[in-house]
Structures are given as structure tokens and as C-alpha cells.
């Protein structure tokens, strides 16, 4: 038996509300399949499963808010036989013919059922707290009250950000470094590259930044990973959390996976996709839970320099200010060049300023050769 | 029948004394009233309820009878038919089985069998219940049996007020009335009200509450009130209903309570199967089904002959802890 538990979709998540099941008992699932949609305080997230098996029982009903680690469903591992109590085992040959879901009738008190009808509440979405976990009058009324007062999303998100950032500032001894990087070559290369691309295939400077950070991470593993239980665990792959601000306020930093091994085109596609899905509220659980470093990019409208707050349990955040023309002295000459201020906020428990400075220098170096990114 | 009965001020009094005062009042107010039964005269009553009444009212009106329940209950029926207002004391419900034919076939049915020509204004008092190590044959709680019979009224005074107040209206009833006095209550002290109610139609809310209804009567009322107090300390607000009248049942009071609290536990010293508790549960499920928020529960006596050893007798009877557990379980706790 496999227990599918509510994963933590970010260090600031203690609980989640199950919004929807994407599977039903009898369905077979494989690694990476989206099985449920869970509302964290930040977003509705598509939760993936990392094991193969057949869904046996959906334990938590949509609408229920449960703590991280709660068993949401049970699955049978491949080869394991069905055990629905008195029912005979369903043979492998017919299990593919959508075995009917033998779910016990839910216990709903007569008063609760009647009240639910009056209040137009779907009792199947209500979690029972009565005898034998029956849905009671109070459960229905609470569900109705919760519906009547839609969760104040912004307040919830603000709370989540507050929790994560307070933890960061409480636990992580930050140090900060910044450097101004000339982008004459990168800007020219991008302009040239984009002129040959269809509008939909054009690249953004942000993608170059992402790739440069990821490649730098490969040489500075102490920037890429998580600090957990008193020790740093470096990550082999670079999953860059991209800070994306939401139109309604707040921000979220889901991951683009394996940034260092992806082409700029792939990254651009991933970034566009991610931004769209963030705004549509359909993030995947792995994107939420496993960034290994955060890259924040204030974009064209932004300020010159970011002084980042590390998103725990990560150990570094690289921030890019806006790209703008500035006087630049080089080889005794003064001219106007597009530049960007890149900053590093890093965890002093894991790395020191000297390595941090080299890391920034590496990013600077990488951005001088955009065609190699 | 809803007139109050004056009791000469608020006093602390035992259940036994309250019953005696009620007898004395009845004898004084109505010359047709007389008391008859085993040992009610010289001995003063097996439970000393009629102590001193022989001296006060004389042997004509306080009559010792032979040991024949069938005969003296029958004599009581005859006296009632003849215009008297007899009070027959059957020592305990255990011995009333010997008089069942007179009670069920005659007293309860005469109005019907005579086409309405005769009524039987008879009051039968009897002790009931277990808890004093009197073993299987002397510990019955058969009130529920009598409540099964149309034609009789069944009363279960559980407070000193009801012990004091129920007799007079029972005597005013044109049909047979049985008063069950739980043997454990005789020594119970309580504060007698200034003017007790003469109501023999309604169940009373003994403790108002909001989260569940504890429905009981007679000897279990005290245990149930204790349980309600313990529940209150655990943050559970229980309502306690004293049925008082087992036949005809005051369904309205029960249902009103359950419709408010949505949960019910019935506490009854009778055995579970076919008990009065079963009837109360049936009324609730029939008439308040859609108001129920949990299956109703029961705390009854274990379905065994009442054991003699103290610890086993205690284990067989409804107790405060069992009531508390049942109440918590219907709340899902």
C-alpha cells in the first residue's frame, strides 16, 4: 500500500485545501502524474505523485483543509492486489476496465443533509467531525460560512509571505554583494537574435540572466541547494525559483527545472508557460516545493538594485535590477552603456563573501558571451 | 390539574416524607381516600412511607392486607368501582407481577369492557428499581411494561416536589394511575417548593442545555444530572429531560428538546430490549429524524438478571460514567 500524503509546497506551507481530485479509485498513475489540485495560501497547485500504482481510496474529500503530511489517498503498488473488504480481488486483466469505485456510503446526519440542502452546500465536499466521522450540522454550517466568506486571498498570501520572510530574517545570516555588469554585448546579441525570430519566439534578457546564474551555480555549488536540519545539501540540478509578482498583489517563486542544461529557447518557453500558469493558478507541486536558488528580476520598470531576502530553505538569491544606460568608464574612455546591477543575498552559514564575489564575477563573465549561453 | 399544591413554605424534606405528606393531604382532603397494602399500618410501610398514619387516621382508612397482591389489588378495584378513592400500595414492582391480571385485565380495561359505564379511579403505588443488593428477583425496573398498557397512567416521581405533588392529581384521574417510587430515592433529601405543581401530563426540563438531550426518569434522574454537570465541566452543554409521565408519553417536550439539540441519549434503568428507552428512541426517529445530527444512544441496564455482588450490580446499572461516555460519543468525542 502506498500512502499519498499532502506534500509541503513551500516552506511556508503548513496546510492545504484539497480543491479537486484528478483521479478516481481504480485509476493507474505513474510518476509525475497530476493527481490532485491543492490550494496553498498562495495558489492552486497541481499536485504530482512520485510513485506508480493504482488508486485505491480517496481519503480526503475536496473542500477539506488538512495539514501537510495528511494521507490524502491510498494506492496499491504494482502487483499488489485490491482489497476492498469483502469484495473479491479484481484481476489484473479487468482492472483496466475501470473497476467501479466501491466507496462506502458517507455518513451524513439527517439534520446535516437537510441543512446542506437548505444552504445549497454539496455535502460531499464537507469533512465530517461527528461520530464515525459523520458530517454533522456544524460541519455543514461551517462549510457554508466558509463559502459565504471567501478566503481573503491577499491577506492569506501576505501572511504566508510574512511567515517565510520572517523565518528567513530570523534564521539566515544574510550577506549582500552587488556588482554592475555591462550588457552592451548581451543587448546587441539579443537584438540581433530577436530580429531573426518570430514575435512569439523572441527571447527576453531575463532568460539570459537565468541561464547565467544557473551556469554559475554549477561552479559555485554552495549557492545552489537547501539548508536543512543544521546542514547544507547542495543540489545537483539547478532549479531556479523565479519570483513572479501577481497582479492582485503578492508574489510567488515557482521553479524552472534543470535550468543549466536547457537551451535559451526552452527556458523562454518555460518562463512564459510558468508566468501564464501562475496567473491562471495552475502550478505543479514540484515547481512549488523544490527551487534550489531564487532569481528575481525587477524588469524594465524596476529599481536599480535588489537587496534580496533568501527564501528558506534555499541559501542564495540573485537579484537583477533594471537594465539602463549609464556612463561607463573603460580603458580610459567614458561612454554610455546598458548595464545591470546584479546583487547576491547569500547565507553566511554556507558561503562567504569572497566566494560570493567570485560567483557574481562568474555571472558577469557569462553574460559577456551571450552566444555561449 | 395544573393547580399548585401548597406545601407550607420552602423546606428541605426527604422523598419519603414528601410522599407521606401527600398521603396525609389526600386523606384529609377527601374522605373517600384510604390506603391499603402489606404492612402499611402497624409496621408503617416497608419503606416507612405510611409511618404514623394508622395512629392519625385509624384502621378503617389505613388497612393492612394479607400477602396476596392479586386479592388486595382486586379489592382496590372493587372499592374504586364502589365510589371510593383507594390508594393501593404494592410493596414493590417485583410483587406486582402477582397482581398483573387485576391491573392489566381488569383495572386498565374496565372502562372499555363496560362500554364506558364504569371507570376505575384507583391509585397504585409501588417501589421499583435496583441498587441495594437485593438480587435478581427484587431488583426489577418494569415501569416500561406498565407503560405499554393503554388504560392506565404511569407516573415516576423523581424529585421531592413530584413525590409531594403527584398523588393528589392522580387521585383526581378517573382511571387507574400507577406511581413508581424508585427505592433508592426514599432517603433522598431535596428542597420542597412553596407550591408544587400538580402536573401529571408533562415531561419537565430539569436542566436546560443546547448540545444534546439526556432523557431519563425516576431513579436515573440524579445520575443524569450529575453526568450533565460533568459534561458541563468538559464544555458540553447538556439538557436533561425528566419524563415524569411514562404513559401517556409527552412526546412534544422530548421532540422540542431534540429539535433544539439534535442529539439524544436516553437513560433508563430497564433492560434495553423492548424498553421505555426503546420507545423514546422510536418516537425521536419517527418524528425528529431530519433534526438528528447523530444516531440517538441509550444507557440501559445490562441484559442480565440483576447480580447480587455490589460491584456487579453497579456494573449492570446505568452509571454517571456510562452516561458521560455515551453523551460524548454522540458528539463524536
Helix proportion of chain B: 25-40%
Number of domains of chain A: 2
In one word, what is the shape of chain B?
A: globular
* Content-based structural category of chain A: alpha+beta
- Largest interface, chains and sizes: A-B, 15 and 12 residues
Helix share, percent of chain A: 25-40%
Biggest sheet strand line-up of chain B: 4-3-5-6-8-7-14
Q: What proportion strand of chain B?
A: 15-25%
User: How many E strands of chain B?
Assistant: 16
Count of helical segments of chain A? 9
Which class of the largest domain in chain A in CATH terms?
Alpha Beta
- How far is the first residue's CA from the last residue's CA of chain B? 43 Å
Q: Major β-sheet of chain B, in short? A: 7 strands, mixed
Fold-level CATH name of the largest domain in chain A = Chloramphenicol Acetyltransferase
* Rg measurement of chain B, Å: 20 Å
**What is the radius of gyration of chain A computed over CA atoms, rounded to a whole number of angstroms?**
25 Å
Oligomeric form of this entry?
heterodimer
User: Which architecture of the largest domain in chain B does the CATH hierarchy give at level 2?
Assistant: 3-Layer(aba) Sandwich
Mean pLDDT of chain B: 96
Continuous helix count of chain B: 14
Describe this structure in words.
The complex is a heterodimer of chains A (373) and B (333). About 5% of the residues of chain A have low confidence. In chain A, 29% of the residues lie in helices and 27% in strands. The longest helix of chain A is centred in the middle third of the chain and has 19 residues. Chain B is 36% helix and 23% strand. Chain B folds into two domains: 187 residues, Thiamin diphosphate (ThDP)-binding fold, Pyr/PP domains (Rossmann fold), CATH 3.40.50.970; 127 residues, 3-Layer(aba) Sandwich (Rossmann fold), CATH 3.40.50. In chain B, helix 3 packs parallel to helix 5. Chain B has 14 helices and 16 strands. At the A-B interface, helix 2 of A face loops of B.
Amino acid at each position: 500500500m502506498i500512502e499519498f500524503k499532502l506534500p509541503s509546497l513551500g516552506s511556508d506551507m503548513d496546510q492545504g485545501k484539497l480543491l479537486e481530485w484528478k483521479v478516481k479509485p481504480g485509476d493507474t498513475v505513474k510518476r509525475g502524474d497530476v493527481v490532485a489540485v491543492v490550494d496553498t495560501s498562495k495558489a492552486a497547485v497541481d499536485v504530482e505523485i512520485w510513485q506508480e500504482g493504482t488508486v485505491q481510496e480517496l481519503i480526503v474529500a475536496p473542500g477539506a483543509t488538512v495539514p501537510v503530511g495528511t494521507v490524502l489517498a491510498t494506492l496499491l503498488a504494482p502487483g499488489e492486489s485490491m482489497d476492498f473488504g469483502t469484495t473479491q480481488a479484481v484481476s489484473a486483466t479487468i482492472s483496466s476496465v475501470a473497476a467501479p469505485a466501491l466507496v462506502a456510503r458517507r455518513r451524513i446526519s439527517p439534520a446535516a443533509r437537510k441543512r446542506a440542502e437548505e444552504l445549497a452546500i454539496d455535502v460531499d465536499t464537507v469533512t465530517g467531525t461527528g461520530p464515525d466521522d459523520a458530517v454533522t450540522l456544524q460541519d455543514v454550517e461551517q462549510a457554508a460560512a466558509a463559502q459565504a466568506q471567501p478566503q481573503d486571498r491577499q491577506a492569506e498570501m501576505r501572511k504566508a509571505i510574512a511567515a517565510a520572510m520572517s523565518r528567513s530574517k530570523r534564521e539566515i545570516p544574510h550577506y549582500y554583494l552587488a556588482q554592475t555588469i555591462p550588457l552592451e554585448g548581451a543587448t546587441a546579441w539579443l537584438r540581433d537574435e530577436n530580429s531573426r525570430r518570430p514575435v512569439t519566439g523572441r527571447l527576453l534578457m531575463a532568460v539570459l540572466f537565468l541561464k547565467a546564474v544557473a551556469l554559475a551555480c554549477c561552479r559555485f555549488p554552495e549557492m545552489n541547494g537547501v539548508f536543512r536540519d543544521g546542514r547544507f545539501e547542495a543540489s545537483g540540478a539547478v532549479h531556479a525559483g523565479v519570483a513572479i509578482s501577481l497582479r492582485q498583489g503578492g508574489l510567488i517563486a515557482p521553479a524552472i527545472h534543470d535550468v543549466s542544461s536547457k537551451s535559451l529557447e526552452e527556458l523562454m518557453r518555460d518562463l512564459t508557460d510558468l508566468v501564464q500558469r501562475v496567473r491562471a493558478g495552475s502550478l505543479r507541486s514540484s515547481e512549488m516545493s523544490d527551487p534550489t536558488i531564487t532569481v528575481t528580476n525587477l524588469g524594465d520598470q524596476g529599481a536599480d538594485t535588489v537587496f534580496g531576502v533568501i527564501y528558506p530553505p534555499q541559501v542564495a538569491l540573485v537579484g537583477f535590477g533594471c537594465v539602463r544606460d549609464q556612463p561607463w568608464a573603460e580603458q580610459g574612455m567614458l561612454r554610455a552603456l546598458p548595464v545591470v546591477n546584479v546583487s547576491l543575498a547569500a547565507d553566511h552559514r554556507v558561503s562567504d563573501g569572497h566566494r560570493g564575489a567570485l560567483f557574481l564575477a562568474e555571472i558577469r563573465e557569462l553574460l559577456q558571451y551571450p552566444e555561449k549561453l | 390539574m395544573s393547580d399548585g399544591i401548597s406545601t407550607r413554605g420552602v423546606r428541605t424534606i426527604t422523598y419519603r416524607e414528601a410522599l407521606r405528606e401527600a398521603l396525609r393531604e389526600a386523606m384529609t382532603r377527601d374522605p373517600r381516600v384510604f390506603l391499603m397494602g402489606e404492612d402499611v399500618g402497624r409496621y408503617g410501610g416497608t419503606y416507612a412511607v405510611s409511618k404514623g398514619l394508622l395512629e392519625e387516621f385509624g384502621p378503617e382508612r389505613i388497612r393492612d392486607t394479607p400477602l396476596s397482591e392479586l386479592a388486595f389489588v382486586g379489592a382496590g378495584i372493587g372499592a374504586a368501582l364502589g365510589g371510593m378513592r383507594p390508594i393501593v400500595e404494592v410493596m414493590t414492582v417485583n410483587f406486582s407481577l402477582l397482581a398483573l391480571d387485576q391491573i392489566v385485565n381488569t383495572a386498565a380495561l374496565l372502562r372499555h369492557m363496560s362500554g364506558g359505564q364504569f371507570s376505575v379511579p384507583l391509585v397504585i403505588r409501588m417501589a421499583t428499581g435496583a441498587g441495594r443488593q437485593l438480587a435478581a428477583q427484587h431488583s426489577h425496573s418494569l415501569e416500561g411494561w406498565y407503560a405499554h398498557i393503554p388504560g392506565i397512567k404511569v407516573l415516576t416521581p423523581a424529585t421531592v416536589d413530584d413525590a409531594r405533588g403527584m398523588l393528589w392529581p392522580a387521585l383526581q384521574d378517573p382511571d387507574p394511575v400507577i406511581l413508581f417510587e424508585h427505592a433508592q430515592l426514599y432517603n433522598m433529601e431535596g428542597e420542597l417548593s412553596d407550591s408544587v405543581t400538580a402536573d401529571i401530563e408533562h415531561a419537565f426540563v430539569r436542566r436546560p442545555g443546547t448540545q444534546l438531550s439526556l432523557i431519563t426518569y425516576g431513579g436515573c434522574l440524579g445520575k443524569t444530572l450529575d453526568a450533565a454537570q460533568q459534561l458541563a465541566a468538559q464544555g458540553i452543554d447538556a439538557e436533561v429531560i425528566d419524563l415524569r409521565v411514562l404513559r401517556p408519553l409527552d412526546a412534544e417536550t422530548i421532540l422540542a428538546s431534540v429539535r433544539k439539540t439534535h442529539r439524544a441519549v436516553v437513560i433508563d434503568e430497564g433492560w434495553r430490549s423492548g424498553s421505555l428507552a426503546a420507545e423514546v428512541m422510536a418516537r425521536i426517529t419517527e418524528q425528529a429524524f431530519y433534526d438528528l445530527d447523530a444516531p440517538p444512544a441509550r444507557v440501559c441496564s445490562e441484559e442480565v438478571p440483576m447480580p447480587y455482588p455490589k460491584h456487579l450490580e453497579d456494573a449492570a446499572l446505568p452509571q454517571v460514567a456510562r452516561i458521560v461516555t455515551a453523551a460524548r460519543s454522540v458528539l463524536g468525542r
